[in-house]
Amino acid sequence: AWTFISKTTASSDSTISFTSGIDSTYKEYLFTFKNIHPSAASNHFSFQGNGSGESGYNETINSVDWYAYHSEGGTSALSEYASGDQANGTGFQRIVTDTSADADSSFSGFMRLYAPSSTTFVTLFSTRVAYMHEGVATRDERVSGYFNTTAAITDIQFKMSSGNIDSGDICLYGLTT
C-alpha cells in the first residue's frame, strides 16, 4: 500500500523541493504530478537529487528518454528516442519536453524512486508523464535511469527549464510492503 507523506501545491513557484520524508522508512517512493501548469510554453519539466550531506542538486545521472506522440488533428504519430537523456551528467533530468502553456493544458504523471537510502547500490528512478505538447499533440514521455552515486538520495527538486510552475499538485508517497 502507498502511504501518503506530503503534498505541495504550486503557486507560481520557480522550484518545488522535497527536503524531508525521503529516508530509510520505505524502499520505494512515488511522486505524483497532478495537473501541473507551466507559466510559459516550450518548457521542460525536470528534477534533480541531492545526496545525504551534499548540497546543490547536482548528482551524476545516467538516463534514457523516449516518448510516443500523436497530433491533435491526427496527421502524425510516432514513437521515438528523445534527446533528454544524460550520460554521467549533473544537470536537471528532463521528464517533460516542450509542454504547452495554453490555458486548457497541463501534465500529469509520476516518478518512482527505488531504495534511495541505500549506500551500497545506485538509486534507480523511472517516470511516466502524459501531457499536451506545444505542437498541439498528446505525448506519453518516459524516462528511466539512476543517480550514479552510492550516497543516500535524501532530497528531490522539481522545476521548469524557464518560468514558473503556475499551478498543480506534487504528492509524495512511500510504499509499505
Number of helices: 0
* Helical residue percent band: under 10%
Q: Tell how many strands the DSSP assignment holds.
A: 13
Gross morphology is: globular
Give, in order, the helices and strands: EEEEEEEEEEEEE
Radius of gyration over all CA atoms, rounded: 16 Å
In percent, how much strand structure appears in the residues?
over 45%
How far apart are the first and last residues' alpha carbons, in Å?
7 Å
How many strands, which pairing sense, and closed or not: the largest β-sheet?
Answer: 9 strands, antiparallel
Mean pLDDT over all positions: 94
Q: How does the helix and strand content classify structurally? A: mainly beta
Poorly predicted runs: none
Key traits:
mainly beta, about 0% helix, about 180 residues, 4-stranded antiparallel sheet
Can you describe this structure?
With 177 residues, the chain is an all-beta fold. 0% of the residues lie in helices and 63% in strands. The protein is built from no helices and 13 strands. The chain has strands spanning 2-13, 15-18, 28-38, 43-51, 61-71, 77-81, 87-89, 93-99, 107-114, 123-133, 137-147, 153-160, 165-175. Strands 1, 3, 5, 6, 7, 9, 10, 11 and 13 form a 9-stranded antiparallel beta sheet that branches. The protein has a 4-stranded antiparallel beta sheet with strand order 2-12-4-8, with no helix packed on it. β5 (61-71) and β6 (77-81) form a beta hairpin. It is globular. The mean pLDDT is 94.
Gist?
The protein contains no helices and 13 strands. The protein has 177 residues and is mainly beta. The strands form two sheets. Strands 1, 3, 5, 6, 7, 9, 10, 11 and 13 form a nine-stranded antiparallel beta sheet that branches.
